[in-house]
Amino acid sequence: MRRGLRILLPAAAVLAGLLMRPVAGSAAALTSDQQRCVNDVNKAASLVAKSQNKADLACLQYAARGVLTRLGVPPQAQTAQACLTNDVRGHVARQTASLQSRDLKRCQSLLPALPAFGHTDAATVDAAARAAGLDIVRGLFGSDLDAAIVSEATDSDGARCQRDVLHYTSDLFSTIWKVVLTAKKNALKGRDRRAGNGPVATAEALRDELIAAVAADGRSQIAKAAAKLRERTTQRCTGMPAPLGQVFPGTCSGAATAAALGACAEGVARGSALTALAAADALAIDCDLTDDGVANLTCESPELREHVLNRLGYGPDAWSRARIETLGVAQYIAEQLAPETIDDSALDAELVQFPSLTMSYQELRANYSNDPVPPQQGLGVIARELKQAKVLRAVMSRRQLVEVLVDFWLNHFNVAAGSSRRTKYDIGPYDRSVLRPHVLGSFEDMLVAVAKSPAMGDYLDNRRNRASAINENYAREIMELHTLSVTGPYTEHDVQELARCFTGWKENYDNPDGFEFNAAKHDQGAKTVIGVSIPANGGMQDGLTMLDVLAHHPSTAQFISRKLVMRFVSETPPQRLVDEAAGVFLGSGGDLRAVMQTILMSPEFLSAPQYRHAKVKRPLVFYASLARALGVSPAALNTNNLRNRIADMGEDLYDAGPPTGYPDVSSFWLSPGTAVKRCNDAEASSRGAYGFAFAYPIVDGTPAEIVDALAGAFFVAPPASATRTTAIAFLEALPEPNPPARVAQAAALLLSSPEFLTH
């Protein structure tokens, strides 16, 4: 057997193991006994936390009154800070004993079949519950409670303010825990799910469900407790002589008003609740939630930064990683939403190799032909150069969001380059002049540009639409696919009437936009479309009027917003975000930049873990992210080879057959055959095939050193422990003595992992 084959056989086995690794929801659900264990221990933990909170409040009150000795605190521990952990009345200890008893009865009796998730051990759960109360005190009063306490004797209002804020902050914490307990019980049984279907079967699925339940707050229990906290804070803490920052020197020291203090205290309660939840159940909750319970970018985890780079572009590369590190997530998103501020001259210099990209309609016809005569080239060169340029832009452009949006809108307003000889000529200007200028502009402007474009006119037959021979194809698709959606408020009669509005719209390649209106072929009669009356003799204005109506219709706002949320957030789009984006769409007159900002700065995008690595990479995304992760030289990249490999995997660029373009559904892009092909191509790329020229960050080392060095280069966030462990085990078993080959095989493994195949 050849050495290379000996290397690849174990690699293939390991890759298969990684690909078959259970994803959220695919493992076994807990049995009823295991569920009872989880639920009972968590309920006991809530009582531990509640007792700790009461003890903390008592410590504060007695210290403010100067009577800590009444608690029986030993003389050497008669301080408020010591009181917090003393539990001199034993209430916390009694609840801890109850928790341990429940764990022994409900959980340890199941050995060795303890729950695989949602349960750690009694000591860990107890510690998390106790720590939560201390976190609340520390959040409000800082690390030295004694220095922060206001004496009732000197400032009764200040003491009452401190007492009430701590009291109602603790109440909010307890309410959140109560909501979590209910959500956990339901999720384990598969009832009333918010972030999936059926009984949860993994820690990740449980985490997603609990975070979603807290965010949804179905019965408004959390909202009511938060409102009570803010109300009492305003009542008790307004008009005090001492500055609020002095009374609350912890996290909320910057609060200048009682209202701001109330909002900050709410964040303390939410953050403490999620921190306790993460610790008690060993759930990986993003730090942006555990600091104050809100997706507000006060903490940016590597997982969040990786998510942003994956969804706003074609994966991380050296420039984007450094940029998001420098700017932070919010400013990185803002910069991508303002692409004109990003220098992309290096890409422009590389695109010069594709001269057809900048040619006018007439220049394209003069330089390319089906039957070329020198110096003409073949007509197929136009589409080939455009496809190669698309690959290069995905790999090299610093304006990553623009490239993703151009791809999105190309599929929304799909034109297949190979559908006719005319579209082979017109597809370049369609990309350059019709779509690119408008992806972050006005939806109506883009809709009008599409309607006028020769490419769309030919693809959907509107160039054949005239008064004497009505063609309904474009009119139907503009309502069904481009604006109102297939379920929109229109009838067959509306389709016919709209087709009449667009009679006489045709191509003229002598004009810069390739369009002209031929009044002689226009139906000048009166028309009525979806209730809009179009008077007779309106000419071209008939179509423009309807484009304006369709562009600003509520159904269009919902449809476009839903598709954008599907692309950037989830294939099962959260309706709250769809509604918010649709509201911005309507309120801004179809400002796509504003809509995208709403989506990208939403809590669903920034902090909902169930939406991360939840989409299978489409072929273009896969190959472009390979190039970006490996750090290949774009100038040396074989873009022609890559565009063919992308087509072989089912995504022939600029040549989707149906008017709907390529679907935004993961299941369409992944099958056993394509999964194997991705792994094979990742392995070949790791060896430098297909024009991939790069240098690895490590040339030799222990298996762990090699895997960690490569993971640091390929991913922003560390891969799952299962991926790391598998990769190390593979290298340990690999018989390959050649260090560079070992590094390449480890790279192939990581580039075929679930973390890399998804985004």
What would the average pLDDT be, to the nearest integer?
92
Indicate the overall shape. globular
N-to-C terminal Cα separation, in Å?
37 Å
Bin the helical content: 55-70%
Short description:
With 759 residues, the protein is mainly α. A hairpin with a 7-residue loop joins strand 3 (505-507) and strand 4 (515-517).
Any key phrases for this structure?
37 helices, two-stranded parallel sheet, 6 strands, 759 residues, single chain, mainly alpha
Written description of the protein model:
The chain has 759 residues and is mainly alpha-helical. It folds into four domains: 3-21 and 615-757, no CATH class; 32-286; 460-551, no CATH class; 558-609, no CATH class. The chain is built from 37 helices and six strands. It has a two-stranded parallel ribbon. Helix 1 packs antiparallel against helix 35. The protein is globular, with a radius of gyration of 31 Å.
Secondary-structure map:
Layout (H helix, E strand, L loop, with lengths): L2 H17 L12 H34 L14 H7 L4 H17 L14 H20 L3 H4 L7 H34 L13 H14 L4 H17 L6 H4 L10 H24 L5 H4 L11 H11 L5 H10 L1 H8 L8 H7 L9 H7 E2 L7 E2 L1 H17 L3 H13 L8 H15 L7 H10 L1 H6 L13 H10 L9 H10 L3 E3 L7 E3 L9 E3 L2 E3 L6 H11 L2 H15 L6 H13 L4 H9 L2 H5 L11 H12 L8 H10 L17 H4 L2 H15 L16 H12 L6 H13 L5 H12 L3 H4 L2
Parallel strand pairs: 1-2
Antiparallel strand pairs: 3-4, 5-6
Helix pairs in contact: 1-35, 2-3, 2-4, 2-5, 2-7, 4-5, 5-11, 7-8, 7-9, 7-11, 9-11, 14-15, 16-18, 18-20, 18-30, 18-31, 21-25, 23-24, 26-27, 26-28, 27-28, 33-36, 34-35, 34-36, 35-36
